[in-house]
Design a protein that fits this description.
homodimer; about 300 residues; alpha+beta; seven-stranded mixed β-sheet; four-stranded antiparallel β-sheet; globular
């Protein structure tokens, strides 16, 4: 029997998927932006989304059409089929930004419900619910947003079948700059741009880079990270969807960024830098490009986020 | 003026290129087998191969048709055009084994000449000579044998153009078992089997594995190393060239190996194990397969070799 006073407020972070060369295999969490959910357990079996704030009216409060609701329903079906939950959703994460907006909402709900119900799900089960909710949102169960949002840190997804993930160490002084130019990119369309097959030579260069980026993180080798941030698969075709992409990334690198890339399927551009000061300079450099071109944008600077969701 | 008493004897190690998932990007050196060269500097501009031992008469003493000679000539042209060298070559490394036989001979000569002439070449220049000599031997400048033979250790070749390499840490208790079944495989033909283009999904799995193997070495995560030793590119097509390949690798894994693969283009099969005892059990298991099938073979067990060439 659930007392209907059981409530929790949870923050889950935005995530950068792919991380340049690591198409579908790397993702990391940041400290901001992120989504918050306010959950109230009920003793009637019903998931209800009471309100959504900060979504500009874009999201549905129908729980079957919202990843927060889908994740909640799947979790309750598994562990508390007689219970329900009221959800208030506070979107700090812009929708359609390539920062894992739907993943963060789902991660916050899953983390919160698991806490409210006394941790019935282990880490692996939580990830499976996260992947399911991503499938409902994006049509494919790519976990490079929801997994780092749920677990925090920098994640290597070595394999999806079976799921095999590994936290990589995060170099101490690494910062992420995010710039979200407000244009619309559909994840499905951005995915369709990716070639279905790639020349061997290109693939070899790409896996040299993914190995390099992984080693760079493990060894805190900033130069190796910088040299490995080269994407021959997604960036060449997706850059065309992002206003001023090459100018923005060049300005970031001129300002000292280790490297840049497209966050997930975009349009957010991310840069990694050594040190907060550099990351802030990089933000100014990227910002100035969009100021001149009159594109609306948002920016954030934060260290990588090792913890994932947290109670607010 | 070179006194004609300047001599040196150098050992350079065998190497395992590709290392399962890391086609063209990973390679490591072992302690045995290897090649030795005995070099005598002369003050007449002529490279002479006095004798070759252990090659069963397969190699040419014409210095233009032997990587040891080609490497020596290129090195002398650059740094001591008035000097010459007499070479005696002791092949401890079987030819056509996939263990970098030509690379080890070249590495030994380059290391030895550089020492005899007072280190005129820095590391980068030595690697360039090594790559050139491989090009003359194999038709392509793939450095995943000659680079680890020259430098020792476990090497990531992140990029060939420009050349960008990184030593990865070697887990302390890691051993390599090698089994060379004596069948002939031509490197060029083995290379032609590799598909020229790869489905995206396969490539993603491969770069998840290369990132995993790199991280596994950096973090001494033996389980991650084991899970990442999966090759979807070369092994499926090249395994057909190697007698009993699937039986040998299965027997190795049943005996406790972390994983197996084809050394370079084969036919040598390598296995990595945690601990010497396991590596020796793995050797027995692999050996027993070839004993039963009456294939001639040679085997070696050694830790990975962090130093590369050494003076004998």
């Amino acid at each position: 029997m659930i007392r209907n006073t059981q409530t929790i407020r949870v923050f889950a972070p935005a995530t950068v998927a792919n991380v340049s060369c690591g198409f579908d295999v790397f993702g990391f969490a940041v400290h901001e932006p992120g989504d918050e959910v306010f959950l109230t357990l009920r003793n009637t079996p019903r998931v209800k989304i009471l309100s959504i704030h900060g979504d500009k009216g874009l999201l549905s409060v129908d729980p079957e059409k919202n990843t927060a609701g889908v994740a909640a329903q799947a979790f309750l079906n598994a562990y508390a089929p007689d219970a329900g939950v009221d959800i208030e959703l506070f979107k700090g994460l812009p929708i359609g930004s390539g920062l894992g907006s739907s993943a963060a909402s789902a991660a916050a709900v899953l983390f919160g419900l698991n806490r409210l119900l006394g941790h019935p799900a282990d880490g692996k089960a939580l990830l499976e619910f996260g992947l399911q909710s991503e499938k409902s949102a994006c049509g494919s169960a790519h976990g490079d947003n929801v997994i780092p949002s749920l677990l925090g840190g920098f994640i290597l997804i070595r394999s999806y079948h079976p799921l095999d993930i590994r936290h990589l160490p995060i170099p101490e002084d690494l910062y992420c700059t995010l710039v979200f130019p407000q244009v619309e990119i559909e994840t499905r369309k951005a995915r369709e741009l990716i070639p279905k097959s790639i020349p061997l030579e290109t693939a070899v260069r790409q896996w040299g880079n993914t190995a390099g980026l992984a080693a760079g993180f493990c060894l805190s080798d900033y130069d190796l990270i910088a040299r490995s941030m080269e994407d021959l698969i997604a960036e060449p075709v997706r850059a065309t969807l992002i206003p001023q992409y090459h100018l923005v990334t060049k300005s970031a690198q001129d300002a000292g960024a280790l490297g840049c890339g497209i966050s997930g399927s975009g349009p957010t551009v991310f840069a990694l830098s050594k040190g907060k000061e550099t990351a802030q300079k990089v933000r100014e450099a990227m910002r100035s490009v969009y100021e001149k071109s009159h594109v609306s944008y948002q920016t954030w600077v934060s260290p990588l986020n090792p913890e994932g969701p947290r109670i607010v």
